[in-house]
Write a structure and sequence with these properties.
With 350 residues, this protein is α/β, with parallel strands linked by helices. The protein has twelve helices and eight strands. The longest helix has 26 residues, at 103-128. The relative contact order is 0.14.
């Protein structure tokens, strides 16, 4: 794929007067099929804040939002849970005079907690939402054609399987494709989107860990389809984060209803040994539930294998020895890429 683009370059029976012969990478980026990517986050912000879309966002999505009872119910349940916990911690149902607590004060306190949970719901969504954009995909595709040869000797895809995906998406355009790649490198989701986009298949929304919300890269990944989720949804063992779970579930369901393709790593995090890890069913269960309650007519599961002769990220010897994982950062990512570029060239097989 790094030497021959699907829509440009020198090909049999192609006119030499076609400018794409001389500028293949630029022509490829301009000729890729354009898809509309409705912003799921816009719908949710309107639901949570109960404001008109015209007051907050562009009018092109003005008819998309409807009241989502599950989100409102989750906000209420989260507020009630906090109230119960505060009562348990205080161990008091009566005041110092032996009288019951003032109903007005109780009501005001509850309303304050409810308002805090509504603001938290809005913050969760703002940190989670994707801003998938066709023009950013075009620009990134052109950059990848220039940058990938610096540290990859080749990118090889299975042509017939790509054609199968194209036929499936064309025959049933309203049915989402659910991509389930094995996770070996941070390059996985970039390569999957790069390959799908340049073969005229709708780019997916990608579930990414919130540890990737780092300067520059975080914003770029969000524009390329990443929606960020917490690596540990329930921070306290034995206590479910009702609000976060509800927003994540509804976000994915609304994305599926809007015919977005979705990509997530069935293993969770990256494998440290090179062997596949045991699958996790969290996000997959949301998709199954969406099908079972008929929110979507169907979904096509697409297993994906991405293999490398050598990982761009380096190795995980220190972590395998028991050392603590070092959090990702912009400079660490740049240093890792530079090290690979200088020391060797890889081959990636999709």
């Amino acid at each position: 794929m790094l030497e021959l683009t699907p829509h440009a370059g020198k090909k049999p029976y192609q006119s030499m007067f076609d400018w794409g012969v001389y500028f293949p990478f630029l022509a490829q980026c301009l000729r890729i099929k354009r898809f509309e990517y409705p912003q799921v986050g816009v719908v949710f912000i309107s639901i949570i804040c109960k404001k008109k879309l015209s007051e907050m966002f562009a009018p092109k999505v003005s008819g998309a939002a409807q009241e989502d009872l599950m989100i409102q119910r989750a906000i209420k349940q989260a507020a009630e849970q906090i109230v119960r916990e505060q009562r348990i911690e205080s161990h008091r149902t009566f005041n110092s005079n032996g009288d019951t607590a003032n109903d007005t004060e109780e009501s005001k306190k509850y309303q304050d907690i409810l308002s805090n949970q509504e603001r938290r719901a809005n913050n969760i969504l703002m940190n989670m939402r994707s801003t998938l954009n066709h023009y950013l995909i075009m620009l990134t595709s052109w950059l990848l054609y220039k940058l990938l040869p610096c540290f990859l000797s080749g990118v090889v895809t299975h042509t017939r399987q790509i054609e199968t995906l194209k036929r499936a998406s064309e025959r049933a355009p309203g049915i989402p494709l659910i991509f389930l790649p094995l996770h070996r490198s941070h390059l996985d989701y970039i390569m999957v989107t790069f390959i799908l986009t340049n073969n005229d298949i709708r780019s997916p929304l990608v579930a990414a860990g919130d540890n990737l919300q780092i300067p520059v890269f975080g914003g770029l990944l969000r524009g390329l389809g990443a929606f960020f989720i917490k690596r540990k949804i329930d921070p306290v063992v034995g206590k479910k984060d009702i609000l976060y779970r509800a927003i994540l579930q509804q976000y994915i369901q609304h994305a599926l209803k809007m015919s977005h393709n979705v990509e997530f790593f069935i293993e969770g995090g990256r494998t440290r040994t090179g062997k596949p890890c045991m699958p996790k069913g969290g996000i997959l269960s949301v998709i199954v539930n969406a099908f079972m309650d008929r929110s979507i007519p169907d979904a096509l599961l697409v297993p994906v294998s991405v293999n490398y002769e050598r990982l761009v990220d380096g190795n995980f010897v220190r972590e395998q020895k028991g050392e603590k994982k070092v959090p990702e950062s912009f400079w660490k990512a740049m240093a890792g890429i530079w090290k690979v570029c200088v020391l060797s060239r890889n081959t990636c097989i999709y």
